[in-house]
Amino acid sequence: SALEAVASRDAAQRRRDIDVATLTRLNREFAETVQDATLRESGIAEANLAFHQAIWQTARNAACLDALTRLQAHLGRYSGTTLTAPGRGSAAVEEHSAILDAIIRQDREAAGTLAAEHMSKAKQVRLLLFTEDRAPQTAANEILGMSYQSTNRNR
């Protein structure tokens, strides 16, 4: 999202050594979580969110932090994560590492661009997952609708 790009750009500009240490640790923990097949989907999502929230904090942009926190509260209502889609977790680890590297180098433009690309890829996977989920439901609704119509005609 554009907000994630703003947060990453601001984080690159405003980061401190403690922020770099925190982001590096959280990125390592995220990578370990993605690789650990015994962990549940919620563990991967939590590790991912922790990394993103640390970027938001590092940005030191109150308006952006408020907007992202509110957005996350609304999005948190939807179950599931794109990170369990085949190959998405590994790709996200690489994307997080690239964003972190840009923040460490204090390359605002790269950090913003990489964050925007990262969120765009997640959005594309999310849309694909919604499409796959919707197809069986649509078929079920059509079947139920036909069953309902045929039973009403017999009355």
Could you describe the 3D structure shown?
By secondary structure, this protein is an all-alpha fold. It is built from 6 helices and no strands. The chain has helices at 2-14, 17-35, 41-59, 62-75, 88-104, 108-153. α3 runs antiparallel to α4 and α5 runs antiparallel to α6 (108-153).
Which helices and strands, and how do they pair?
Elements: H1 2-14, H2 17-35, H3 41-59, H4 62-75, H5 88-104, H6 108-153
Quick recap:
The protein is mainly alpha-helical and 155 residues long. The protein contains 6 helices and no strands. The chain is 83% helix and 0% strand.
Q: What structural class is derived from the secondary structure elements?
A: mainly alpha
Outline type: globular
Please outline the major beta sheet: none
Radius of gyration: 20 Å
Helicity level, as a percent range? over 70%
Spell the H/E element sequence: HHHHHH
Ends distance: 53 Å
The number of strands is 0
The tally of helices reads 6
Q: What are the segments in which pLDDT stays under 50 over at least 5 consecutive residues?
A: 134-155
Which whole number gives the mean pLDDT? 85
Strand content: under 5%
